[in-house]
Backbone:
């Protein structure tokens, strides 16, 4: 059983790390501010969830699991709020999102 | 009054679950902190019908979250795919969609859920319109069909 938990937790942690790496790469690869925000969204949601679940599987104590769940809920509330605040601030200060495909260079506003 | 009692109970449970030490000194300190926080909330006048989800909202949330988690995982896979395929495969779009919720809480849940699913971000929120930016145009069209909207409307109905 311990073995099984350790393996399951390892898989979760690995997948979570892979997703965080993907989020970071997306942050560099995507063309403008708004699309980059979507890449950061991966790190915000599934990656953090997987890593916290992986940690929960390593600590079967109820108190620790409760604290990790509290952290998870907090992150799931704060992440979108911060993204929204950033996006709204960007739009308000006049940053125009890229809406055409990148190939048509002259269409980029 | 009901809000005050339920806030105190929630805070007390939260304190107990976080502390893990149950001797007289720490318990009384915990009780003091709970009373202090409730007093602060009372003074700030933030204890109204919206500070805490109503009972029916609390009981309906789990089924909504199950659906939302499924959506989050699916759209995560999609965005990860596009990150590795490169920026030629994405097609960013911006569109205003309607929200049919009647309460502020419902609208906040809707906008928050949109942002929580990777690939779509709620940028601006006016009365019943939400400005959404998406990584792929079909994501916005999927939102426009309104499944999420309908689910949240059902959530806020008593």
Residues:
């Amino acid at each position: 059983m311990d073995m099984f938990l350790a393996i399951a937790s390892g898989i979760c942690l690995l997948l979570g790390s892979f997703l965080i790496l993907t989020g970071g790469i997306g942050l560099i690869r995507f063309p403008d501010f708004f699309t980059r925000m979507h890449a950061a969204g991966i790190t915000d949601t599934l990656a953090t969830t997987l890593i916290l679940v992986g940690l929960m599987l390593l600590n079967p104590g109820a108190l620790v699991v409760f604290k990790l769940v509290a952290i998870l809920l907090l992150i799931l509330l704060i992440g979108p709020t911060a993204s929204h605040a950033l996006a709204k601030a960007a739009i308000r200060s006049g940053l125009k999102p890229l809406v055409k495909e990148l190939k048509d260079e002259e269409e980029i506003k | 009054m009901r809000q005050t009692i339920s806030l105190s109970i929630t805070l007390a449970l939260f304190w107990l679950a976080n502390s893990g030490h149950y001797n007289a000194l720490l318990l009384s300190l915990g009780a003091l902190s709970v009373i202090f926080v409730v007093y602060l909330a009372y003074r700030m006048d933030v204890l109204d019908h919206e500070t805490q989800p109503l009972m029916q909202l609390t009981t309906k949330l789990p089924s909504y979250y199950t659906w939302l988690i499924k959506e989050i995982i699916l759209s995560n896979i999609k965005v990860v795919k596009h990150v590795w395929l490169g920026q030629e495969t994405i097609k960013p779009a911006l569109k205003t969609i309607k929200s049919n919720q009647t309460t502020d809480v419902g609208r906040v849940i809707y906008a928050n859920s949109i942002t929580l699913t990777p690939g779509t971000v709620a940028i601006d929120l006016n009365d019943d319109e939400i400005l959404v930016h998406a990584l792929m145009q079909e994501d916005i069209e999927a939102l426009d069909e309104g499944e999420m909207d309908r689910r949240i409307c059902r959530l806020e109905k008593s």
Remarks:
- Residues 62-92 of chain A form the longest helix (31 residues).
- The radius of gyration of chain A is 18 Å.
